[in-house]
Amino acid sequence: MAVREISVVCAVDCLILLISFLIFPVQMLKGKRVIITGASTGIGEQMAYHLARMGAHVLITARTEAKLQKVVTRCLELGAASAHYMNGSMEDMALAEDVVKEAKQLWGGLDMLILNHIGYTYFNYFDGDVEYIRKLLEINFLSYVAMTVSALPMLKESGGSILVVSSTAGKIGIPFVAPYSATKFALDGFFSSLRQELIIENINVSITLCILGYIATETAEKTVSHVMQKPGAPKEECALEIIKSGALRKRELYYPYTIVRIALLIRDWAPEFLDSLTRNSLNVENVKKS
Ligand SMILES: NC(=O)C1=CN([C@@H]2O[C@H](COP(=O)(O)OP(=O)(O)OC[C@H]3O[C@@H](n4cnc5c(N)ncnc54)[C@H](OP(=O)(O)O)[C@@H]3O)[C@@H](O)[C@H]2O)C=CC1
Ligand SMILES: C[C@H](CCC(=O)NCC(=O)O)[C@H]1CC[C@H]2[C@@H]3C(=O)C[C@@H]4C[C@H](O)CC[C@]4(C)[C@H]3CC[C@]12C
């Protein structure tokens, strides 16, 4: 695709982005019933706070109860219509289903399911550990499917939304994240296919796949700051963009917009060039085989 075409596509995309920003009324989420997973810290925590400011009902999950309690308290201070938590590991599919059952108990329904949690992710050469990949697939992928299966009846009733938080590493090959990348690619395959089926059956449930670049969360910075050549994007703005894209029922979100959008454009027209750009965007010499 010539530079002219790329610039036209980007210009149109930027216009769409500007319009969607202008038409997003925050009262869209007032009183809405929302589950946010992985919300004890990072992007999930910030999404809970934005939803609280918008007057939504929030049910948050993660493993660390003490952190969840603090987030719930802060959500109530910020104006949440209600705020509850359930703690446990998403290795356990029963927990995944129980969170949805709790929403039914609390609210009698559900408007938005935000699937955000991830298991421990290392940033290094793949070490051949297949069992680790199996476990990460359960936490990062199968629990998302299990929650979706449990939540769909309520979401069909409300005409609700599913927000799936993924990554640039779920769309292009990035070194040192092979197991994690596999789980994110799986999300794209499953939820993009499910979205087609919902459209065919005229079921009014939207699925938004959120493709994120490097975001400045505590975990990510701890894991990769020694390799990254630029700081991560702000988690607070990232969280708001995810919520807005879900509320506007967008098909996909790219954040930071320009970095991710251009990477995907190059991927389709010059994949080897993108691979080289990606490698050069990292201080690979700082990654020591463990
Ligand atoms: N930060 C970044 O650079 C990028 C992030 N993303 C995506 O954004 C999302 C959030 O990332 P980020 O905020 O950085 O992640 P964090 O590591 O900050 O937060 C992860 C959350 O998941 C929870 N969690 C971890 N293990 C489990 C488990 N076994 N079961 C249930 N919950 C668990 C953690 O809480 P607890 O430990 O208490 O369980 C925490 O609340 C992820 O889907 C990630 O892939 C995508 C691209 C880039
Ligand atoms: C290194 C990736 C960004 C590559 C890129 O876009 N370069 C061009 C440029 O920056 O201009 C990072 C994109 C996604 C990140 C990973 C991710 O998806 C989240 C994980 C979160 C975890 O807590 C830590 C590490 C992550 C694997 C994170 C690592 C950096 C990215 C691959």
What are the defining features of this structure?
290 residues; alpha/beta; Rossmann fold; 7-stranded parallel beta sheet; 10 helices; 7 strands; binds NADPH dihydro-nicotinamide-adenine-dinucleotide phosphate; binds the ligand C[C@H](CCC(=O)NCC(=O)O)[C@H]1CC[C@H]2[C@@H]3C(=O)C[C@@H]4C[C@H](O)CC[C@]4(C)[C@H]3CC[C@]12C; SDR_fam; EC 1.1.1.146; endoplasmic reticulum; transmembrane
Task: Please render the helix and strand layout as text.
Layout: H1 3-23, E1 33-36, H2 42-53, E2 57-62, H3 65-78, E3 82-87, H4 93-107, E4 112-115, H5 130-158, E5 161-167, H6 178-200, E6 206-212, H7 218-224, H8 235-247, E7 252-255, H9 257-269, H10 271-280
Parallel strand pairs: 1-2, 1-4, 2-3, 4-5, 5-6, 6-7
Helix pairs in contact: 2-3, 2-8, 4-5, 5-6, 9-10
This protein binds NADPH dihydro-nicotinamide-adenine-dinucleotide phosphate and the ligand C[C@H](CCC(=O)NCC(=O)O)[C@H]1CC[C@H]2[C@@H]3C(=O)C[C@@H]4C[C@H](O)CC[C@]4(C)[C@H]3CC[C@]12C.
The ligand C[C@H](CCC(=O)NCC(=O)O)[C@H]1CC[C@H]2[C@@H]3C(=O)C[C@@H]4C[C@H](O)CC[C@]4(C)[C@H]3CC[C@]12C binds next to helix 7 and helix 9.
Explained architecture:
By secondary structure, this protein is of the alpha/beta class. Helices cover 54% and strands 13% of the residues. It has one domain: NAD(P)-binding Rossmann-like Domain (Rossmann fold), CATH 3.40.50.720. The chain is built from ten helices and seven strands. The protein has a seven-stranded parallel sheet, with helices on both faces. Helix 4 packs parallel to helix 5 and helix 9 crosses helix 10. The protein is globular. It starts with a helix and ends in a 10-residue tail after the last helix. The structure holds NADPH dihydro-nicotinamide-adenine-dinucleotide phosphate (NDP) and the ligand C[C@H](CCC(=O)NCC(=O)O)[C@H]1CC[C@H]2[C@@H]3C(=O)C[C@@H]4C[C@H](O)CC[C@]4(C)[C@H]3CC[C@]12C. NADPH dihydro-nicotinamide-adenine-dinucleotide phosphate binds next to helix 2, strand 5 and helix 7.
